[in-house]
Amino acid sequence: MNKFTILLFTLFLSINCSLYAQDNYITEANLIKIVAAKIALKHNKIKFKVNNEGIPEPLTSNDKTAFSALLGNKSTLEKIVKSSSKTKKTKKTNSQPEPGGDDQPAESDKKDTEESTNEENEFEKSAMENELKYILFIANTDDPNELLKIASTCPKQFEYLEDVSNLADMNASGAKTNFAFSESEIIYGIVDFTISRAKEQMVEVYLSKWYNTLKDDEITRELLPQTLGVLNAFNTTESLNLAQYGDKWKAAFQEDLRNFPVKLQNEEFIDALLTRVNVSEPSKSEVKATITGGSKLVYDLYLKKHLVNILSDMSAGYVAETTPKYEVFKRLTVLSDILLKAGGTMNNNDTYVSTNLEDINRMDLASWKIFVKLLCIRNLDGINYVSSGRSDELLAQLLLDPNTNKFSTLYRQTLNTVITYQKAVNNVANVQANELNFEESRKLFELSFQLTDQVISYIPLVIKDATVAQTIKDTHAKIKQYYSALSEIGEGIANRRYGAVVDGTAGIIRMIDINKQQETLLSNLQIYGSFMVNIINAKDSEQVKAALDELIPRNLYKLKNTHNFNISLSAFPGVLAGAERIYKFKENPDGTPQTDQPKVSSWAFTPAVYLPIGIDLSFGKKRAKKLDENKKNLNEKKFISTNIFFQIVDLGAALNYRITANDSDEESAPNVTFKQMLSPGIAIMRHFTNSSLVIGASANYTPSLRTINQSGNEFQSNAFRVGLFIAVDVTFLNLYTSNKVPE
Description:
Layout: H1 3-43, E1 48-50, E2 56-58, H2 61-71, H3 74-94, H4 107-140, H5 144-148, H6 161-173, H7 183-216, H8 218-223, H9 225-236, H10 246-258, H11 260-263, H12 267-276, H13 283-302, H14 307-319, H15 328-343, E3 344-347, E4 351-354, H16 357-361, H17 365-378, H18 380-386, H19 391-398, H20 401-430, H21 438-455, H22 459-462, H23 466-479, H24 481-494, H25 498-512, H26 519-537, H27 541-551, H28 558-562, E5 566-571, E6 574-584, E7 600-610, E8 612-622, E9 639-650, E10 666-668, H29 674-677, E11 678-687, E12 693-710, E13 713-728, E14 730-737
Antiparallel strand pairs: 1-2, 3-4, 5-8, 5-14, 6-7, 6-13, 8-9, 9-11, 10-12, 11-12, 12-13
């Protein structure tokens, strides 16, 4: 074989290896994604940290516990490894024997092979566990710095990836063929599922309630169309669960919050809001013009339009109105546009080139009067709008020497403001991806409203009637309070700080609602708005859980105290002390059981962990009057309730034990069974004043709670318990609440 052929062959091999590596990475990536998703179904995302040796280790004790649970007991990995080893051996067996070798191995060879196989299995179990750490770390970690820490230790190829996938399948499905689940494990799984499902159903109930609340209010209905669409789909589509709406929620929330300033530009929407809070003319028109115009200004700034172009567009729209009302915000916008057009030009639609300040400094009184004349002649429509159709009076006012001098001073300030704005725009343009940071965006929005705020100073110079001029200034003093809220909305959408969008919108409603008639609307907007923001910002399931926890009200027990009657599904975790009766054989004097005789009852003192779940009937009552020296009822806001509780199950049954010196042959059942879960009973309890704490008496029956061992005779005994308990009311779901309150 010549050198050329060898080179070609080598090149061919290298290409094949390269393609294989690429393909292998793709295959590994897809399989790793699937494995991580399967494991997450049962264990959520197990998080890892990189130790000093560059090896991933579980991040927290909970993660360590979850990882151990994932691996299961040793037999779990052994089954997978043996299956893997058999496959490998089969491949070896199917191959042809070595030339000259025997077909059948000797006995000593078999023994050596078995020992070697055991060692290989132990090695493979360790290697598989190690690979699983890297696989989950890579799948669940997005921090580049953390990921690169494992570059020197990460396996070049995951040899046990298919075996790890089998382990994931077993965890996801809980297949009986792979795990020998005890009845206890099944029950704990059912308990976890029940709690999880109870939480989901509670979320569904409250989200349905929120949908109706938001939909029934015309303001929130207009502000949150996308959100209501997703909520409605969630409430009406029974085949889909909560998790499947995660991305849809986030997208809908973002879309609605980004569009808040668009909704606030809608005059009909603002008109309805102002009518609702009884704002009358002329204030109504002034406030409406400020909110709609200011919202357009901030939204166009968010879209990175130049302020000069925005004012030009808005001014053209105002001047073209067929029946103008000459609102103050609109007048100031038109005047701002006229002043900026006279002082510079737009270059390439994104840069304002202002008049050279040196040229301005060379102007004398005569030059400024000519400037004023050009200003009015070339912008007559706008001047007519600013002066309410009295352009001749406006020009005459400006041509008075004192007014012309004041005008020249103010105009320098106006140009300085727009020059500062242009510098801020230039700074943004130099930022990568042309994205606004928080400080830059704040400066842009503040400068935009600062320009409008400055223009009010021109009004005494252009309006001849002093009364009219003062009215305009007074009106501006009232409407300028909206500028800060509008700026907050703009800054919020520009920087994806959606909490600021909610706060700014709520601030506008609060400003117009001077009589505080819309407290419910504001409360709903802020509570649900906060939930929307938390969902948008959530980066993992724990943060989503926290968002839902904030939305769903706590302290539901208060409904029991503050209403005449309430029915709920509740749990009462606490401690119980009382007596427990079981049945066991009588004993002879030597301690041997009389197994040929019927069992007899045995009572003993029983302190126990108590966690009953069932239906709670509550009867609320106000505390008896207690008057102070001023005859004021000290118990006016103090409530208690008496409860009748029908117990169904007791999740504390597995933890109950009896402490008695004479019953050393009894032991707590090591495993929880279905019989032990069922624990019918009844309790009467009383809430402490305005508290979730209860004290009560209960009686319940639990089948097969005790395993009795009397001299080798082992049997289970039913238990009947009575006692007093103290517990905390954890109300899962209110089934019914009367409208009447205790008197």
